[in-house]
Fold this sequence. Notes:
The protein is α/β, with parallel strands linked by helices. Helix content is 49%, strand content 16%. A five-stranded mixed β-sheet has the order 7-6-8-5-9. Strand 1, helix 2 (44-59) and strand 2 form a beta-alpha-beta unit.
Amino acid sequence: MGRLVSDSTRGRRSVLAAMAVMLLAGRSRAAPARPIVIGSKSDTEGALLGNLISAVLEGLGLPVERRLGLGPTLIVRSALLAGEIDLYPEYTGNVAFFSGTETDPAWKTAESAYDLALRLDAALRLVWLTRSPANNTWLIAVHGGFAREHGLATMVDFAGAVRNDLIRLAASTEFVESPAALASFEAAYGFTLPLSRIISLPSGDTAVTARAAAEGISGVNAGMVYGTDGALAALDLAVMSDPKGAQIVYEPAPVVRAATLERHPQIRTALDRVFARLDADTLRRLNAAITVEGRTAAAVAGEWLAAQASHR
């Protein structure tokens, strides 16, 4: 009797042990996959692009953790290199400064800038996906009425207006002092804008400089802007084209850790399709929906993606 009881007990224990193993195995299989951590900078376009990337990956059924608005460029870049985030939207021209190669003329054209960014970051196991055909570089915009009156359309025209003492510029201190900004324009187009004709602001908020130029605040008729600023879609401003390519090209693209892309190769095709459609006019319009209309970046990104899906 005792032996029979012992065998029965052992049998039950064996069955229970087997069930425990099966349950643990099931839990292991059901454990959620490691989320893909998406970062972005703390500016309007960073929030827009970060939300676009996040929504696209979620649409693929991938687990996503959004860490948007992390801070300025160096903080987000450091987080990517440290593996704290998996990908974020970056601009090709910024690799010039990461790598100390900003004097290389390759950064002045879109194709060569992208190729160089791709090659330099590959050594760090970072992969650049397809870039947007939208150059978010430094530009100068002129009051619309003033530009029409004086026939200003390019930086060649702008240089002539400077030489005739017709320009009063609002710009950030960085734009005024950096050798890669105003000084590059002056060298390429043969003009010098006196400091007495510049209102220099400590912040780089182009919403302020663009509005100053559009509304003639403090006699300003020109303002520092970025190529995809939302204000350009809402204000009467004429953006001076840069036919000599004085500025480094800054086209946005998702930059992803190679290990993350190896785990989820479907990311490439999905994001390539989206970023290829984000030209300058589109980004200006979407940025304006956030900065001018006051909508959230997540809502603007979601609505645009839905519209793209309906047009396929």
